[in-house]
Amino acid sequence: MADGSVNLPPGFHFSPTDEELVLHFLYSKVSRLPCHPNIIPDLDISVSDPWELKGKALSSGNQYYFFTKVNENRTTQSGYWREMGLTDSIVSAADKKVGIKKYLVFNIGEAPEGTETSWVMQEYQFCSSGCNTASHRNTRGRRKSDQRQSEWALCRVYERNRDPQQEVKCYDDDEDDSRTELSWLDEVFWSLDDDLEEINLTYY
C-alpha cells in the first residue's frame, strides 16, 4: 500500500455481505480491535470525488470501499453526496440489528441545485445494541464501542449502469416512497414482451 494502491491481488475478489461488512470490518474499526486482513483504508469523504477513488480506496470490480468519519457535510470539490431517503437495517444471523445502511447519490454543483450523477454510495453505520461487547469496557464501566459507534462509517461506492439519454430519478425525501425504479432485469423482460407483441401482430 506504499504506492497508494489498495487493489486486491490477482485472483482475489472482495465481495462481502452487508452483515460481514458491519460485524467484521466496521465493528473492528469502531472498537479499535485488530482486523485481519486490514485492507480497507481511511479516507476523508470531502477530499475525493467518486471518480477519483481508484488507487485510494479498496477496489473490487466496479466497487470502492473505504472508512470515513461520520459527517453530515459530504461536500467535495465538484459536488456533494445527497441522501436518497432510504435506510435499510442490517440484521445478523442471530436476528439482531447490528447496523444501518444509508443510500446517497452524488450531485455535481452546489446544493440543492446540483445535477444528479450515476454515482451511488452505501454508507454503513454500526449499532452496538445488537452485539455482545461486555468484554470491552473501560474503567468507568461504559462500553467502548458505544462511545465510538457513530465515529466511523464504512462506505461502498459504485457507478450505476444506465442509458445516458434516459433520465433516472432517485428517491427524494419529499417524494412518495411507494414509487419504485425498474431494475435492468425488469427492463429486459419488458422489452421482450414488446418484441413478442410485434411478432404476434405479424401473424394476423
Can you identify the CATH superfamily?
Answer: NAC domain
In the CATH hierarchy, the third-tier topology is known as Metal Binding Protein, Guanine Nucleotide Exchange Factor, Chain A
Overall CATH class: Mainly Beta
List the strand order in the largest sheet.
1-2-6-5-4-3
Cα-atom Rg, whole angstroms? Answer: 20 Å
Total number of strands: 6
Average pLDDT confidence is 75
Counting H and I runs of at least 4 residues, what is the number of helices? 3
Principal-axes shape call:
globular
Q: Roughly how much helix do the residues carry, as a percent range?
A: 10-25%
Q: Assign the CATH architecture.
A: Beta Complex
Summarize this entry quickly.
This is NAC domain-containing protein. This protein has helices spanning 18-30, 144-148, 184-201, and strands at residues 58-60, 63-69, 79-91, 97-108, 115-126, 152-159.
Which labels suit this protein?
204 residues, alpha+beta, Metal Binding Protein, Guanine Nucleotide Exchange Factor, Chain A, disordered C terminus, nucleus, DNA-binding, DNA binding
What does this structure look like?
Keywords: DNA-binding, Nucleus, Transcription, Transcription regulation. GO terms for molecular function: DNA binding. Residues 8-160 form the NAC domain. By secondary structure, this protein is α+β, with helices and mostly antiparallel strands. The chain has one domain (18-201): Metal Binding Protein, Guanine Nucleotide Exchange Factor, Chain A. The chain is built from 3 helices and 6 strands. It has helices spanning 18-30, 144-148, 184-201, and strands at 58-60, 63-69, 79-91, 97-108, 115-126, 152-159. β1 (58-60) and β2 (63-69) form a beta hairpin.
